[in-house]
Design brief:
The chain is mainly α. It folds into 2 domains: 31 residues, no CATH class; 95 residues, Cytochrome c-like domain (Cytochrome Bc1 Complex, Chain D, domain 2). The protein is 48% helix and 0% strand. Helix 3 crosses helix 6. 22% of the residues are buried. The structure holds heme C. Heme C binds next to helix 4, helix 5 and helix 6.
Protein backbone atom coordinates (compact mmCIF):
# COMPACT_ATOMS: atom_id res chain seq x y z
CA UNK A 1 0.00 0.00 0.00
CA UNK A 2 2.79 2.38 0.95
CA UNK A 3 4.51 1.67 -2.33
CA UNK A 4 1.34 2.38 -4.22
CA UNK A 5 1.01 5.77 -2.55
CA UNK A 6 4.61 6.55 -3.40
CA UNK A 7 4.11 5.80 -7.05
CA UNK A 8 0.95 7.89 -7.18
CA UNK A 9 2.91 10.75 -5.64
CA UNK A 10 5.78 10.36 -8.06
CA UNK A 11 3.49 10.18 -11.05
CA UNK A 12 1.71 13.36 -10.10
CA UNK A 13 5.04 15.08 -9.53
CA UNK A 14 6.16 13.93 -12.93
CA UNK A 15 2.95 15.14 -14.58
CA UNK A 16 3.40 18.45 -12.80
CA UNK A 17 7.01 18.84 -13.93
CA UNK A 18 6.44 17.81 -17.51
CA UNK A 19 3.50 20.16 -17.84
CA UNK A 20 5.33 22.87 -15.95
CA UNK A 21 3.27 25.62 -17.54
CA UNK A 22 0.23 24.31 -15.73
CA UNK A 23 2.11 24.28 -12.41
CA UNK A 24 3.70 27.69 -12.62
CA UNK A 25 0.37 29.42 -13.02
CA UNK A 26 -0.69 28.13 -9.61
CA UNK A 27 0.32 30.64 -6.94
CA UNK A 28 2.02 29.93 -3.65
CA UNK A 29 -1.30 29.23 -1.97
CA UNK A 30 -2.20 26.70 -4.64
CA UNK A 31 -4.87 28.92 -6.15
CA UNK A 32 -5.40 28.78 -9.85
CA UNK A 33 -5.97 31.90 -11.94
CA UNK A 34 -9.58 32.43 -12.96
CA UNK A 35 -10.61 31.43 -16.45
CA UNK A 36 -10.12 34.04 -19.17
CA UNK A 37 -13.72 34.88 -19.98
CA UNK A 38 -14.98 37.75 -22.14
CA UNK A 39 -16.45 39.26 -19.02
CA UNK A 40 -13.11 39.22 -17.19
CA UNK A 41 -11.33 40.62 -20.22
CA UNK A 42 -13.84 43.47 -20.49
CA UNK A 43 -13.30 44.21 -16.82
CA UNK A 44 -9.54 44.27 -17.53
CA UNK A 45 -10.04 46.71 -20.41
CA UNK A 46 -11.99 49.07 -18.20
CA UNK A 47 -9.40 48.90 -15.39
CA UNK A 48 -6.60 49.40 -17.90
CA UNK A 49 -8.23 52.57 -19.22
CA UNK A 50 -8.67 53.88 -15.70
CA UNK A 51 -5.23 53.00 -14.31
CA UNK A 52 -2.60 52.13 -16.90
CA UNK A 53 -3.33 53.91 -20.17
CA UNK A 54 -1.54 57.16 -19.25
CA UNK A 55 1.80 55.32 -19.22
CA UNK A 56 1.37 52.15 -21.25
CA UNK A 57 -0.76 53.86 -23.91
CA UNK A 58 -4.12 53.16 -25.60
CA UNK A 59 -2.46 50.62 -27.91
CA UNK A 60 -0.33 49.09 -25.17
CA UNK A 61 2.83 50.21 -26.94
CA UNK A 62 4.21 52.15 -23.96
CA UNK A 63 3.45 55.54 -25.51
CA UNK A 64 0.95 56.99 -23.10
CA UNK A 65 0.90 60.75 -22.58
CA UNK A 66 2.78 60.39 -19.31
CA UNK A 67 5.53 58.23 -20.80
CA UNK A 68 7.52 61.14 -22.25
CA UNK A 69 8.36 62.50 -18.82
CA UNK A 70 9.58 59.14 -17.48
CA UNK A 71 13.24 58.21 -17.40
CA UNK A 72 12.55 54.50 -17.51
CA UNK A 73 9.99 53.97 -20.26
CA UNK A 74 6.88 51.88 -19.67
CA UNK A 75 6.83 48.38 -21.08
CA UNK A 76 5.70 48.08 -24.69
CA UNK A 77 3.13 45.27 -24.45
CA UNK A 78 3.00 44.76 -28.22
CA UNK A 79 6.31 42.86 -28.40
CA UNK A 80 6.06 39.06 -28.01
CA UNK A 81 5.10 38.13 -24.48
CA UNK A 82 8.24 36.06 -23.82
CA UNK A 83 10.41 39.13 -24.51
CA UNK A 84 8.92 41.24 -21.74
CA UNK A 85 11.90 42.07 -19.58
CA UNK A 86 10.25 41.44 -16.27
CA UNK A 87 7.75 38.64 -16.72
CA UNK A 88 9.36 36.69 -19.59
CA UNK A 89 6.11 35.14 -20.70
CA UNK A 90 4.89 34.15 -17.25
CA UNK A 91 1.38 35.42 -16.36
CA UNK A 92 2.06 34.76 -12.68
CA UNK A 93 4.95 37.27 -12.81
CA UNK A 94 2.67 39.98 -14.19
CA UNK A 95 0.31 39.24 -11.38
CA UNK A 96 3.17 39.77 -8.91
CA UNK A 97 4.37 42.97 -10.63
CA UNK A 98 0.94 44.47 -10.08
CA UNK A 99 1.06 43.59 -6.42
CA UNK A 100 4.63 44.74 -5.71
CA UNK A 101 5.46 47.27 -8.43
CA UNK A 102 8.96 47.47 -9.94
CA UNK A 103 11.50 49.18 -7.66
CA UNK A 104 12.99 52.49 -8.87
CA UNK A 105 10.53 52.88 -11.73
CA UNK A 106 7.22 54.64 -12.25
CA UNK A 107 5.57 51.23 -12.07
CA UNK A 108 4.16 51.36 -8.57
CA UNK A 109 2.17 48.76 -6.72
CA UNK A 110 -1.57 48.59 -7.14
CA UNK A 111 -4.16 47.36 -4.72
CA UNK A 112 -6.65 45.44 -6.77
CA UNK A 113 -8.53 42.33 -5.78
CA UNK A 114 -7.01 39.11 -7.11
CA UNK A 115 -9.84 38.86 -9.62
CA UNK A 116 -9.20 42.36 -10.95
CA UNK A 117 -5.48 41.70 -11.08
CA UNK A 118 -6.05 38.68 -13.29
CA UNK A 119 -8.38 40.75 -15.45
CA UNK A 120 -5.46 43.16 -16.00
CA UNK A 121 -2.97 40.35 -16.61
CA UNK A 122 -5.19 39.00 -19.40
CA UNK A 123 -5.78 42.48 -20.75
CA UNK A 124 -2.10 43.38 -21.14
CA UNK A 125 -1.31 39.94 -22.60
CA UNK A 126 -3.87 40.61 -25.34
CA UNK A 127 -1.66 43.40 -26.66
CA UNK A 128 1.29 41.15 -27.38
CA UNK A 129 1.85 39.61 -30.76
CA UNK A 130 3.74 36.53 -31.87
CA UNK A 131 3.37 33.70 -29.41
CA UNK A 132 1.76 36.09 -27.00
CA UNK A 133 -0.90 33.50 -26.09
C1 LIG B 1 3.16 56.05 -13.98
C2 LIG B 1 3.36 55.18 -15.11
C3 LIG B 1 2.81 53.77 -15.07
C4 LIG B 1 1.53 53.36 -14.77
C5 LIG B 1 0.34 54.21 -14.37
C6 LIG B 1 1.51 51.92 -14.96
N1 LIG B 1 2.75 51.47 -15.33
FE1 LIG B 1 3.27 49.52 -15.72
N2 LIG B 1 5.19 50.08 -16.01
C7 LIG B 1 5.66 51.38 -15.99
C8 LIG B 1 7.09 51.39 -16.25
C9 LIG B 1 7.98 52.60 -16.31
C10 LIG B 1 7.45 50.02 -16.45
C11 LIG B 1 8.81 49.48 -16.86
C12 LIG B 1 9.67 49.18 -15.70
C13 LIG B 1 10.93 48.48 -16.17
O1 LIG B 1 11.12 48.27 -17.38
O2 LIG B 1 11.72 48.14 -15.30
C14 LIG B 1 6.23 49.23 -16.27
C15 LIG B 1 6.21 47.87 -16.36
C16 LIG B 1 5.04 47.12 -16.30
C17 LIG B 1 4.98 45.67 -16.41
C18 LIG B 1 6.16 44.74 -16.55
C19 LIG B 1 6.17 44.07 -17.89
C20 LIG B 1 7.41 43.27 -18.14
O3 LIG B 1 7.37 42.06 -17.92
O4 LIG B 1 8.41 43.84 -18.57
C21 LIG B 1 3.67 45.31 -16.35
C22 LIG B 1 3.06 43.92 -16.43
C23 LIG B 1 2.90 46.53 -16.17
N3 LIG B 1 3.77 47.60 -16.15
C24 LIG B 1 1.53 46.58 -16.07
C25 LIG B 1 0.81 47.71 -15.71
C26 LIG B 1 -0.61 47.73 -15.48
C27 LIG B 1 -1.54 46.55 -15.65
C28 LIG B 1 -0.93 49.00 -15.07
C29 LIG B 1 -2.26 49.52 -14.63
C30 LIG B 1 -2.90 48.84 -13.52
C31 LIG B 1 0.30 49.79 -15.10
N4 LIG B 1 1.33 48.97 -15.49
C32 LIG B 1 0.38 51.13 -14.77
C33 LIG B 1 4.90 52.53 -15.76
C34 LIG B 1 3.58 52.56 -15.40
Amino acid sequence: MKRLLWSVGLVSLWVCLSLSSSCTTIDQWGRKPPEKTTELLNRGKKLYEENCIQCHGPKGDGKGWKAAELKKKPRDFTVPFNEWSYSHGDPQKIFEVLKTGIPDTAMTEFRFSDQDQWALVYRVMEFSKGDGQ
